[in-house]
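User: Hey, quick favor. My workstation is busy. Could you predict this chain's structure for me?
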Amino acid sequence: MSNFDAILVPGGGVREEGRLPSWVERRFDRAIERFDGEYIIALSAGTTHRPPPIDTNGFPLLESTAAARYLIEAGIPKKSILTETCSYDTIGNAFFSRIIHVEPALLRRLLVITSDFHLPRSRLVFEWIYGLEPRPIDYILQFEGVADPSMDPAVLSERRRKEQTSVERLSAIMRQILTMERLHRWIFTEHDAYSAGMPGFTGSLAAQGLRSSY
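Assistant: No problem, here it is.
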């Protein structure tokens, strides 16, 4: 019997023809190693930090659907794969995974797998959002990081600095948001990626070097 009800893998980028960057492949490779019949939930539509690649029919390639294809090609049964195609950042990964999949499916024991450079922020965000009231399920979250040896060292260093800045900024937001109702209101009225009338994607494009880590 599996130790988990689901393995959650945050988004980390997608490239032309639906290819996953090496660090994202490593996240899913670890999920494949850990797979024991539970759901693997691939998270993210994309990112605000770079435009999405487009398929041959002109449609955007979504991160989680590209990840689902990767899992299927690795032999994971389709019935064990869930996708989340609404989020564009780590906060969205946690929020939408909870309300779209985890709560309706009554999933309790969760393993979050992400890159080492992304792990501190992921842990902070997921523990915050899954701890907000009301909590119909007493969630148990575990986290696992994977190394990123294929990422350019200069880009990795820049990304780590950006992650630390994001953690510091997030701490102030967390102190103000203690319920799911308040989080919902903040996401859809104040968050740049999800609220009407905000800068949205154009306002958050990353610099060229950093953009390659998304």
